[in-house]
Amino acid sequence: MIDDDAFDAALIGAGFAQIARDGWHAFSVPRAAREAGLDLARARRRFPGRAAFLLRFGSMADRAALGAEPASGSVQERLFDAIMRRLDVFQRHRPGLLALFRALPTDPASALLLSSASLTSMGWLLEAAGVTASGPLGLLRRKGLLGVWLWTLRAWCRDETEDMAPTMAALDTALTRAAQLARSLPNGADDAVVPDAPPADGAPPPA
Q: What percent of the chain lies above the pLDDT cut of 70?
């Protein structure tokens, strides 16, 4: 019997393949489990619904971002590395995620779920980079990093290169802008993260 991590990875892979092929609204966990040759009872236990599928994928991406030893350098550099590790997981399921993002405007419940989960993820990334994410200032930082994430994710959705160079450039720009804004505030501190990533010329995908 495969362990839970391998089981989850197999189901998530089959799920995003199904979403890429048939669309988010046609996706079902039982069908993904059958297509991956996985035990349905175990799939029911670990993925009781579509929301659980999305949340478990987010947790998988977070583990990849948090699992490596923190990089040396500034907070901005550490956040850059963590976000790119998270996007590496997204890249493995790119067609399915793009199909999901296209469907989210017609599924506000899933969009709200992903927005809330992403805000939680940003808190973990901040703490891993050595930045406190609790309290009122922590909430401000989490919202700021969420803006950076959405800006970068928007660039990723348009980025068809293998090395993700345009995505990395967008992330670097967003983090630099956030640091500049933090230093401009009263009592601003170097390496803080605040809202208002670079102004977008269109709304980023909710994620």
A: 87
